[in-house]
Amino acid sequence: MSDPILVEVWRGPLVESRHRGAVAVADADGKLVLSVGDVEAPVFPRSAVKALQAIALVESGAADRYGLSDEELALACASHSGEPAHVEGVMRMLAKAGLDSLALACGAHWPASQAAAVALAKTGTPSALHNNCSGKHAGFLCLACAMGVDHAGYWRPEHPVQQKVRSVLEDLTGAALSVDRCAVDGCSVPTWAIPLKNLAHAFAKFGSGRGLHGERANAAARLRAACAQNPWYVAGTGRFCTEIMKLLGARVFVKTGAEGVYCGALPEQGLGIAIKCDDGAGRAAEAIMAAIIARFLPLEAAERAPLARFVTPTLRNWNGIEVGALKVTEALATP
Amino acid sequence: MSDPILVEVWRGPLVESRHRGAVAVADADGKLVLSVGDVEAPVFPRSAVKALQAIALVESGAADRYGLSDEELALACASHSGEPAHVEGVMRMLAKAGLDSLALACGAHWPASQAAAVALAKTGTPSALHNNCSGKHAGFLCLACAMGVDHAGYWRPEHPVQQKVRSVLEDLTGAALSVDRCAVDGCSVPTWAIPLKNLAHAFAKFGSGRGLHGERANAAARLRAACAQNPWYVAGTGRFCTEIMKLLGARVFVKTGAEGVYCGALPEQGLGIAIKCDDGAGRAAEAIMAAIIARFLPLEAAERAPLARFVTPTLRNWNGIEVGALKVTEALATP
Question: Phi and psi at residue A148, in whole multiples of 5°?
């Protein structure tokens, strides 16, 4: 197993580091239109499938029952930066289900946003609300309450919420999510390893609605629209997911996952995208995703330069001096 | 060029990510006793050679002229965490040369120590003193003042300080540090790309004094002793370099560099070590360094378990649940 080098990290005249990886781009029939590296090996998708995990929240009627707004649905799909409006949105979601932050089982960490972390440090310490996954967890809790089941232990693989989520993931990916493919995610919910080709197929279905039954297709469309209209709620200030969806609107859906995973959809093209950087590097996964979008999405003239800055990001040091750049390799070039 | 996989990142039942890399272990004659992957390719050593860069500070007489303490010499070799005593030590170094923090050209960043960053955020913002390289820069400034040259621009490749540092690096590594191997480091000083086999040779000489002229050998011994006696000043609370040197004392010298580089010496064995993780991952470089030490350094019974925890570090999530571990591969096993 040796995936190709997809991204080089240049410093001055030389390549300093190299990132290998694999990429699958598929249509809603599961046909691969691009396959680079090993797209058959199981990959833990981590947070990159939050939007798929959120389908159950919508199609079950829980989102309507608690009157979740589009911002709040975007938070259910988010790895947010813990900025104040993210935290407030998650508190609202919990309150709508009659809960508060004590119900969250995701654990606490400092906001990913440095500005938010510095502001918080002046007066307090982080809670589970600041965890990048708190919106997803609030969605799980809303689902548990709407299902009329005890929300305690909602994060365990055997809980009805996780069983429902697993069933949706199996339907969309076509992969059997067996216990020998299951691990514990950073926020304690199960993460099931799924081949990139299946993840790409799932996101083609998520993006187009094709191959999904009516309620499921409607839920997918509603979540996509919520994210497209509220990209700041999906990540945060200056983040890749936010900036790409701000730039390209509803023509693209992208979502990061830990350990170098990225998933996305190009709804108008009917394509789904799944990326894994072998070594877990997010910086490389972002450049690869930007390169794939540039290859498959017809761009307007004004969009080319802003997108190119994500394909070949400049590296600057602590003094702001340009010291190098990330560059995608020939392995990703248009054939 | 395909370096072997040296570290696997396990999550539950599967490998989630993989790190490739290269390792050279050499004696003071430059003979390789271990060579894994490509040890001939030039690698930017970044902060891993700070102790070699500090040799000029000592052998020039600058350290004696300004009465630098062992803690301060350790800081000159450090990538410190910006904890209060690190910052105070750098201020003392600068004051001894009649300077203050305004002379530092390394740029500012938040302390690498989360506790120090949180404490600082309550009252202020970081300065260049908090930059992990500020001790090295204070050493460069002391050297400039002792040389009687204008300290302005001390970070530029053509400045007498950097020329002297380059000359020491060329002597120890035996590599020609030409302009086509030069890039700008995170703190703006030049970093010259050097093959791992040459870096390992240099650290064997640094660790043993063999092959160095008298003043240079004395300077190396003094810097090693300063770091061995003050490992907290070389990195900080809980950091790998600090913990390893606390555990094993003067029998080992280790120093991290950005982008997955690690260098070290086993003085009693007369060996030098140089590691590069291809993708730049520090987590993998640390596990590799711990594995190399375990292989080449005779250990006392009480040292085995603490060192093993660095060879196979456990991964825990935000709730403290054990979710996986890093494991070094057969490619690093004793033949």
Answer: 75, 25
